[in-house]
Amino acid sequence: MQIKIFTDGAARGNPGPGGWGSIVVTDGNVNELGGRDKHTTNNRMELTAVIKSLESVSKLTTNSPQLKAAVFTDSSYVLKGAKIWVHNWVENKWKTKTKQEVLNKDLWQKYLKVSKEMNIEWKLLPGHSGIPANERCDVIATEFADDEKPKLYSGALSSYRVDLSVTSGLKTKSQKLKARSSKLPAYSYVSMVKGVIKTHKTWAECEKRVKGVSNTRFKKSSSLEDENVIIKEFKGK
Q1: Cα distances (angstroms) measured from residue 72 to each of 24, 26, 53, 152, 165
Q2: How do 188-193 and 216-221 pair as beta strands?
Q3: Of the residues 32, 37, 138, 226, which is catalytic?
Q4: Contact present, 73 and 137 (Cβ < 8 Å)
Q5: Catalytic status, residue 9
Q6: Catalytic annotation present for 138
Q7: Is 55 assigned a catalytic role?
Q8: Strands (DSSP E) along the chain, which ranges?
Q9: DSSP one-letter code for 95
Q10: Handedness of CA 35, 36, 40, 41 (dihedral sign)
Q11: Tell me, which fold does domain 2-159 have in CATH?
Q12: Among residues 34, 128, 200, 226, which one is catalytic?
């Protein structure tokens, strides 16, 4: 059985309210998963998405002694941690090279436990590049982070509307910025009035600053990364 898993995580404030989302494909079926944490970080949510997805398939029965899963993530932290760092941390009794405590030790221990009997092939995706499955996971994660209740699909692969290929949705930089701005939930709003740039948590706050004022610019961001891109754009960098 070939298992395919897409994952993503998000946090508002980092730390702040966070969410995770995943798509788990197993033997002709698809299950979307997701959850929320009131106070967390982006890395914890990225890793939680992987753990919860692996837990969901860990009890599947196959003819093979090991479950095989392809895990697609846009988190270098998760991929490098799972492939390299976690094994070094175990050898060093959960200390980093600088003798510091390993961050998110509790989650990495859970990952080791759930992945012990699995053969995992890791795939690093470019974040926010228009890959439909990655974008869907991002939407699930951000909606949970915003304390919304996204409708999660569970059913036949043949009826699933999200393209699960990893190349068909790749977009140019300008296209992906436009897609993020128009389709994803707002992370913040960035305004510039007479050369002074500010960020706002709500549209009402942003609108109050720019309405009726000349020489202004404003734009919605969908993530911290997007917010920084907009600020640089407004600064002309």
Answers
A1: 10, 14, 11, 19, 11
A2: antiparallel
A3: 138
A4: no
A5: yes
A6: yes
A7: no
A8: 2-11, 16-26, 29-40, 67-73, 118-124, 154-156, 188-193, 196-200, 216-221
A9: B
A10: positive
A11: Nucleotidyltransferase; domain 5 (3.30.420)
A12: 128
The token pair that represents 24 in the structure block: 């788990």
pLDDT on residue 63: 59
In this predicted model, what pLDDT tens digit does every residue of 152-173 receive, in sequence order?
999 999 999 999 998 655 544 4
As a whole number of angstroms, the distance between CA 116 and CA 109 comes to: 11
Supply 222's token pair: 């969908």
**Two structure tokens written together for 23:** 């798509």
- Are the CB atoms for 67 and 1 separated by under 8 Å? yes
Q: What are the domain boundaries of the chain? A: 2-159, 188-235
Query: Does 15 sit behind a cis peptide bond, omega within 30 degrees of 0 on the bond before it?
Result: yes
**pTM passes above 0.85:** no
CA–CA dist 127, 73 (Å, integer) = 8
| Catalytic site includes residue 37 | no
Give the closest residue to 184 by CA, choosing from 139, 126, 144.
Answer: 139
